[in-house]
Amino acid sequence: SDFAKKKGINYISTLGTAYVSAKHNPYLTLLQPTLRTHCERIVEELIKNAAGEKVTVLYRTKDEADDACYDYVTDAAGNKVHLQYMACNKPPRKANLKLFIDPRKPVTLLVPVSEIDYADSLLHSLSADFPDTHFDVYGMPSWAAIADLKKKDALKNITVHITAAATLDRSNAMGQYVRHIYTQVYAGKISEPVYEGFETLFMYASLLRKYGAHFNEKYNDVGTHAPFEIQPQPDRSGSIRYYENTRTVVNTFGDK
pLDDT digit string (tens) for 194-239? Predict the structure, then answer.
């Protein structure tokens, strides 16, 4: 990204979200939403669904990633939702959690912890220790790797909400076209990276054809085929730090 900035060449990062080394780089585009964007989106969903409710934040500060998650969600929440806090650098004990649980009504938890094993253990503990209480848990995008989220009845009495980067709608004309051509050429089972790769290549080929190599100011002209909302990310002075795809979706798993 530093080389791209020096040479005035657009650099499109399709997988990574690191931008620390590229301060004020209008040539850098992140196609994966950053952790801050994911945290802001999950808090937005929380505020929409839990207006007027008490929300317990189970947080850790033992490493840099968890510390960042905590800062992002609390900044996004502000005074828009009533938060109460419980530090959980170690998995919380049942007796301690019980202080935050009213057995007469559902409990809403915001858990800005990215470690998958910790989150998996926490969810199973909640389900086993409080079988008569329903939990709405708002977690981090990394939780998509928790296998039991997708298994029926694996986490009874728990609904989990997590964010993910938006992907191509497989049911629309473009999605059907990709599937048709892929089946003709390769005859195998189509995977998510195939859709992502196609939509990315298609979008940038269109931008290059229309506007040449310096197309950044034309990102709003990507059309409706690709699920990207690429926005400049300015600093406090208004200078562009980088461009970022900020479009995310919220996926919900478990009991409703």
Answer: 888 888 888 899 899 999 988 988 887 765 556 788 999 988 888 8
Flag whether pLDDT at 139 surpasses 60: yes
User: What are the structure tokens assigned to 233, written together?
Assistant: 């990310």
Give the integer Cα–Cα distance in Å for 169 and 153.
28
**Using an 8 Å Cβ cutoff, are 17 and 246 in contact?**
no
Element (H, E) at 185: helix 173-185
Q: Are 84 and 57 in contact, with CB atoms under 8 Å apart?
A: yes
The per-residue b/e assignment along 125-155, b for 16 or more CB within 10 angstroms, e otherwise, is: ebbeebeebbbbbbbbbbbeebebbeeeebb
Task: Establish how many alpha carbons lie within 13 A of residue 1's alpha carbon, considering only the half-sphere containing its beta carbon.
Answer: 21
Q: What is the pLDDT of residue 226?
A: 64
What does the pLDDT read at residue 220? 79
> Which amino acid, 256?
K
pTM: 0.89
pLDDT in tens, 115-131: 999 999 999 999 999 99
Q: Which residues contact 3 (CB under 8 A, 6 or more apart)?
A: 9, 11
The predicted structure's pLDDT at residue 255? 66
* Distance separating alpha carbons of residues 239 and 23, to the nearest angstrom: 10
Q: How far apart are CA 44 and CA 48, in angstroms?
A: 6
